[in-house]
C-alpha cells in the first residue's frame, strides 16, 4: 500500500472515530439480511395461516404433518398471542428492521454505539422470547412448528453475531482473554445452542421418532 493510501485510510479512521460511528463487514451485513429474511419468511407464513385459521377453524396448515409436527396446535394455543395479537405480527416488524439494517451496512452505513447496543438488546429480547416459546412448545403445548423452529434458529444466530460484532468493536467490554476466544471461535455458541435445541426435540418425542 502506498504512503498516500495509508494516509487516506488513517484519515478515514480518524474521521469515523471522531463521529463515533461503527460499520460492519459485508459478511456480517449479509448475515443480518439472511437471518432477518428467514425470520420474516417464517413470520409471514405463520401470519397467513393464522388468518386462514381464524376464518375457518377447520383449516389445517400445510406444516401440520403429524401429531408432533403440528403448526395448527401451536396457532390455537394461548401462547401464540401472548401480547394480545398473533406473535408472528411482531416478527413481521422486527425481522424487517434487521433486514433494513443489514442492507444499510451493505450500502456503507455506520451507526453510533448506542444503536448497536439497542440492536443487541432487541436481539436479546427476541432470543429470550423464542426460548420461552420453545419451552412452551415442547413441554406445555406438546407440538412442534417447523416455521417457528426456523425463526428460533435465525434469532439465535442473529443474537450471537450481533453480540460478537459489539465485542469485536469493544462496544460491549469483556475480559481480553474471553474476547479473543469469542472472536476466534465465534461459530461455536450458535452451533452448540441450536444443537442443544435439536437434542431436546429429539429426546422430547423419542418414542415417536423411532416408532
Q: Can you give a write-up of this model?
A:
By secondary structure, this protein is mostly helical. It has a single domain (22-203), classed as de novo design (two linked rop proteins) (Up-down Bundle). Helix content is 74%, strand content 0%. It contains nine helices and no strands. It has helices at residues 3-19, 26-55, 71-76, 87-106, 113-141, 146-168, 176-184, 188-204, 206-210. The radius of gyration is 20 Å and the shape is globular. This is Vitamin K epoxide reductase family protein.
Q: How is the biggest beta sheet arranged?
A: none
Number of strands: 0
Unreliable spans: 1-18
Counted by DSSP, the helix tally is: 9
Number of structural domains: 1
The helix-strand sequence is HHHHHHHHH
CATH topology: de novo design (two linked rop proteins)
Average pLDDT, to the nearest integer?
89
How many angstroms does the end-to-end distance come to? 64 Å
Under CATH at level 1, the class stands as Mainly Alpha
Which architecture per CATH?
Up-down Bundle
The CATH homology group name: VKOR domain
User: Which band does the percent of strand residues land in?
Assistant: under 5%
Indicate the percent of residues in helices. Answer: over 70%
The Cα radius of gyration reads 20 Å
Structural class call reads mainly alpha
**Based on CA inertia axes, which overall geometry fits?**
globular
Q: Any descriptors?
A:
disordered N terminus; 211 residues; transmembrane; membrane; 9 helices; globular; redox-active center; oxidoreductase; mainly alpha
Amino acid at each position: 500500500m502506498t504512503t498516500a493510501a495509508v494516509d487516506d485510510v488513517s484519515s478515514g479512521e480518524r474521521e469515523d472515530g471522531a463521529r463515533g460511528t461503527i460499520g460492519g463487514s459485508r459478511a456480517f451485513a449479509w448475515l443480518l439480511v439472511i437471518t432477518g429474511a428467514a425470520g420474516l419468511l417464517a413470520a409471514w407464513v405463520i401470519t397467513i395461516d393464522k388468518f386462514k385459521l381464524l376464518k375457518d377453524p377447520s383449516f389445517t396448515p400445510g406444516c401440520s404433518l403429524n401429531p408432533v409436527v403440528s403448526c395448527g396446535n401451536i396457532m390455537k394455543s394461548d401462547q401464540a398471542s401472548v401480547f394480545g395479537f398473533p406473535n408472528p405480527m411482531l416478527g413481521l416488524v422486527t425481522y424487517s428492521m434487521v433486514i433494513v439494517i443489514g442492507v444499510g451496512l451493505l450500502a456503507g452505513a455506520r451507526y453510533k454505539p448506542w444503536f448497536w447496543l439497542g440492536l443487541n438488546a432487541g436481539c436479546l429480547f427476541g432470543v429470550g422470547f423464542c426460548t420461552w416459546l420453545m419451552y412452551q412448545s415442547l413441554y406445555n403445548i406438546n407440538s412442534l412448528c417447523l416455521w417457528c423452529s426456523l425463526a428460533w434458529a435465525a434469532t439465535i444466530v442473529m443474537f450471537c453475531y450481533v453480540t460478537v460484532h459489539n465485542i469485536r468493536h469493544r462496544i460491549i467490554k469483556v475480559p481480553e482473554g474471553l474476547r479473543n476466544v469469542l472472536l476466534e471461535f465465534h461459530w461455536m455458541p450458535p452451533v452448540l445452542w441450536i444443537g442443544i435445541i435439536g437434542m431436546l426435540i429429539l429426546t422430547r418425542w423419542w418414542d415417536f421418532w423411532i416408532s
